[in-house]
Amino acid sequence: MNISPLASSPPGTSPQPAQPGTVTPSPVLSARGLLMTYGTGGTTTRALDGVDLDLDRADSLAVMGPSGCGKTTLLHILAGILTPTTGTVLHEGTDLARLGDRRRTRLRRSDFGFVFQDGQLLPELTALENVILPRMLGGTSRRAATAEAASWLDRLGLSGMHDRRPTQLSGGQAQRVAIARALAGRPSVVFADEPTGALDQATGQAVLQILVDSCRDTGAALVMVTHDGTVAAACRRTVTMQDGRIAQEFVRPVAETGSTGAER
Ligand SMILES: Nc1ncnc2c1ncn2[C@@H]1O[C@H](COP(=O)(O)OP(=O)(O)OP(=O)(O)O)[C@@H](O)[C@H]1O
Ligand SMILES: [Mg+2]
């Protein structure tokens, strides 16, 4: 595999200012100087220790590294679920920490999609209802949300399963419902934490390909935490974390990620 190393920018460096007369695409997410300390007093854990990261539209980023190195913490901070101890996250230029809780929640619903290891579908709702619920909470009409959800479920190979509850679905099918739910709102960024970790390898690979292709087709950026190098290889970039820092970054040639590159 032809992987070329790319030095990540040193902590604290800022993006280069745009040259007059040039169009510089701004990243959809931009994090600078992230530190995160859990706990107070004598029992504190430094989970992030100076992370800078930019994510472009429609790009895909795998976050790897040993257990406890800060991957989930980073994902949650980038998604505005957690606020860092210090440092900033800009989404399309807006500082997440400066939004109030309500506006941040609204932003998460309208602009971010989430896929977690176990899907986190609501057990009492059908597949279709699981997909439409966040859309309706975001203000979309039931009729529009239903049409959108049905089309996503069909597209992900779940036609005929719209009315099944999560317990009546296989792990791979449930993860496809979670992907439909994440993408139905046309998010600008999809966050995935070990999205295939609970699946066998073949099912996991199929679900992963659906996730990566769906993000690429809709122009969503993807940030995916994984322990699995094969899974990471579906993403254009991989960062490896160590003790709360980005220790390494790789960028893959587009051809190796199975992308046509058409939307990038
Ligand atoms: N709510 C919390 N309170 C205290 N410490 C925490 C909390 N969440 C995470 N930590 C600690 O922060 C560090 C980073 O945790 P994090 O969950 O980000 O790691 P991770 O890389 O996602 O690990 P894994 O691969 O096991 O999921 C760990 O030392 C963990 O114990
Ligand atoms: Mg984790």
From TrEMBL:
Entry GO terms, CC: membrane protein complex; plasma membrane
InterPro entries: AAA+_ATPase, ABC_transporter-like_ATP-bd, ABC_transporter-like_CS, ABC_transpr_LolD-like, MacB-like_ATP-bd, P-loop_NTPase
Record field: compositional bias (Polar residues): 1-11
Region spans: Disordered: 1-25
Superkingdom in the source lineage: Bacteria
GO MF annotation list: ATP binding; ATP hydrolysis activity; transmembrane transporter activity
Keywords: ATP-binding, Nucleotide-binding, Transport
Keyword ATP-binding on entry: yes
Listed Gene3D superfamilies: P-loop containing nucleotide triphosphate hydrolases (3.40.50.300)
Annotated ranges, domain ABC transporter: 29-263
Name this polypeptide is given: ABC transporter
Biological source species: Brachybacterium vulturis
